[in-house]
Amino acid sequence: MGKFGGFEEIQAWQRARDITLHIYRVTENGKFAGDFGLRDQIRRAAVSVMANIAEGHGRRSNIEFANFLNLARGPAHEVQSH
Predict the structure, then answer these.
(1) Which residues are CB-neighbours of 2 under 8 A, at least 6 positions away?
(2) Predicted confidence band at 10 (pLDDT cuts at 50, 70, 90)?
(3) CB 24 within 8 Å of CB 45
(4) How far is CA 15 from the centre of its chain?
(5) Ramachandran angles phi, psi of 61, nearest 5°
(6) Nearest to 4 by CA among 51, 59, 46
(7) Per-residue pLDDT reduced to its tens digit, 18-61
(8) DSSP the chain
């Protein structure tokens, strides 16, 4: 496994967290706040990126970790699309 003490040390997780916090702020008001479906979907996708990175870190091998990093790409692109 990589040499991370905790998933919080992974720069990709830190960046995903920053983006997630920003998305929550942006979607609190305005048009996003009224479009519950889109608001909730973009929030879930952003959280999913963080969760996949954290879950991958908790796995037992670099191969499994890499698989979860790959899985995180899907919701990252979904956030970008929204």
Answers:
(1) 57, 62, 65
(2) very high
(3) no
(4) 9
(5) -145, 160
(6) 59
(7) 999 999 999 999 888 899 999 999 999 999 999 999 999 999 89
(8) --S-SSGGG-HHHHHHHHHHHHHHHHTTSHHHHH-HHHHHHHHHHHHHHHHHHHHHHTSSSHHHHHHHHHHHHHHHHHHHH-
